[in-house]
Amino acid sequence: QVQLVESGGGLVQTGGSLRLSCEGSEQAFSDYNVGWFRQAPGKEREFVAAIDWNGHGTDYVDSVQGRFTIIRNNAKNTVYLQMNSLEPEDTAVYFCAADLNWRRIVAQPRLWGQGTLVTVSS
Predict the structure, then answer these.
(1) Distance between CA atoms of 10 and 21, rounded to whole angstroms?
(2) 24-81 pLDDT per residue, tens
(3) 75-106 burial, b for 16+ CB within 10 Å, e for fewer?
(4) What's the alpha-carbon Rg for the chain, to the nearest Å?
(5) Cβ atoms of residues 46 and 62 within 8 Å
């Protein structure tokens, strides 16, 4: 089973940028649709962005549209989430997830990483 490992979280000021990475443990990762979710303190986990297996299709939650970009490099088994114009409301643990089914990737993907913390200071 493919394992997912996130990296790139940290502390950034309002208006700053971060790039999160999600690396898959096997070449089969390139067959998976991949999504990013986040969970802020005291809130439910929410969908942020997703990209299909070949990088041709993407989806974003309205609150990050135009600020976040999801891309993938299948040669490196890695999906990235470029986050610009960060706001304190973006503070959360960000999780990478993967599923072979596109409909599941935005709701209940089967595979999950451990998460990486993003903190945006005001």
Answers:
(1) 12
(2) 999 999 999 999 999 999 999 999 999 999 999 999 999 999 999 999 999 999 999 9
(3) eebbbbbebeebeeebbbbbbbbbbeeeeebb
(4) 13
(5) no
Residue type for 24, please? G
* Residue with token string 């490992």: 5
Q: Which residue has the tokens 């903190």?
A: 119
Say which residue the tokens 């993967």 belong to.
98
Q: In 29-46, which positions are buried (b, 16+ CB within 10 angstroms) versus exposed (e)? A: bbebbbbbbbeeeeeeee
Q: What is the pLDDT of residues 79-118, one digit of tens each?
A: 999 999 999 999 999 999 999 999 999 889 999 999 999 9
